[in-house]
Amino acid sequence: MSLEGFSVANVHERPALGEAMVRKLRAGLMPPAGTTRPTGAALANLAAALETGLDDAAAIPNPGRRSFQRLNRAEYERSIRDMLALEISASDYLPLDTKSANFDNIADTQLLSPTLMDAYLRAAGEISRLAIGNRTATPIESTYRVTRWVSQREHVEGAPYGSRGGVSALHTFPADGTFTFRVSFHHETTGELFGSGRAALHTAEHPEQIEISIDGERVALLDIDRWMHVSDPDGVNLRTDPIVVTAGPHQVSAAFIRRFEGPAQDLISPHEWSLSSTSVANAYGFTSLPHLRDLAIRGPLEVSGVSDTPSRA
After folding, report:
1. Cα atoms in the Cβ-side hemisphere of radius 13 Å centred on 221
2. d(Cα 87, Cα 215) in Å, to the nearest integer?
3. Average pLDDT, the chain
4. Are strands 176-185 and 303-305 parallel, antiparallel or unpaired?
5. Which residues contact residue 145 at a Cβ distance below 8 angstroms, ignoring those fewer than 6 apart?
6. pLDDT tens, 4-57?
7. Closest Cα to residue 175, out of 133, 125, 131?
8. Cα distance between residue 183 and residue 146, in whole Å
9. In contact, 240 and 181? CB cutoff 8 Å
């Protein structure tokens, strides 16, 4: 046991040594035998002073120094949701988080560079405008894509019942105003609409239709021209007229009207889990249905105000 640099007043800095000293003092083992010993009262007072210092330090523990830690992207999203009732994707504003041992919430690896600080400031500015509304909002376009590795034969969660495929997303509108919605479809390698039904065993008597809905209510119903081609002026795309939408988050869906139920009696059964290939769409014996590629929301074209939103409630 070395007492070099030890101070009774600072016993809280070396509590293990202080505890050992108290035990030896109470047992009469300190100072060692054969050395000059203070009086019994002096040793008792020293032990009492050490105990008091240790007890005071234990009552107010020192947790030590903690490294600076910022919110990672997942924590940032949840914080915005809890504080502002606003669903965002942090990946739209912030770069990927640095990982340590596959964890992205380790403080020592979460450095805050000037560039990252600028990203957080830009995110705060844009998210605050979404939360309180923006009367001076200018038209922007947001696109929601559907991977081709997803089959669109079944109902999509969030879309109205009686529909199939498509996409459903929670979109935050920055202000009251008019917006347009564009839907784009997958096409064959030769440019024709995929799932047009020209060579299928069944051909629908009525054209395929795609429904645009907001919060479960239909706002547009578009007929799909089975003869559309990528070489057409609008390609394999359809657009709505301007539609009035209020500010705030709304569930926007673009889904096909379901025409039939049950399995398709094809020569070769289609994959239920993916759009396997667009090159077999015109092959005999395949029930190939139109598949949505993406939904684009553009606006506001004209701003009419800012309604109450969950963030402003």
Report:
1. 8
2. 15
3. 86
4. antiparallel
5. 167, 293, 294
6. 888 888 887 788 888 888 888 888 888 887 788 888 888 888 888 889 888 888
7. 133
8. 11
9. yes
48: left (phi over 0), alpha (psi -120 to 50) or beta: alpha
Q: How far apart are CA 71 and CA 97, in angstroms?
A: 10
Locus of tokens 């096909």? 256
Q: What whole-number distance in Å separates Cα of residue 95 and Cα of residue 72?
A: 10
On the question of a cis peptide bond just before residue 31, with omega within 30 degrees of 0, the verdict is yes
- Within 10 A of 307 (CB to CB), how many other CB atoms are there? 14
What pLDDT, in 10s, does the model give residues 53-110? 888 888 887 777 777 888 999 999 999 999 999 999 999 999 999 888 889 888 888 8
Domains in the chain, ordered, with CATH? 8-59 (no CATH), 73-132 (no CATH), 140-260+271-305 (2.60.120.260)
Between CA 193 and CA 228 the distance in angstroms is: 6
Element (H, E) at 201: none
Cα–Cα distance for residue pair 148/277, rounded to 1 Å: 9
| Burial class of residue 117 (count of CB atoms within 10 Å of its CB; 0-12, 13-18, 19+) | exposed
What's the N-to-C CA distance of the chain in angstroms?
65
Written as six digits, the tokens of 132 are 């309180």
Give 19-80 as a 3 state SS string.
HHHHHHHHHCCCCCCCCCCCCHHHHHHHHHHHHHHHHHHHHCCCCCCCCCCCCCHHHHHHHH
> Is residue 124 helix, strand or coil?
helix
Segment among 107-116, 169-178, 272-281, 297-306 with least mean pLDDT: 272-281
The amino acid occupying position 188 is E
Yes or no: say if 244 and 219 are a contact pair by the CB < 8 Å rule.
Answer: no
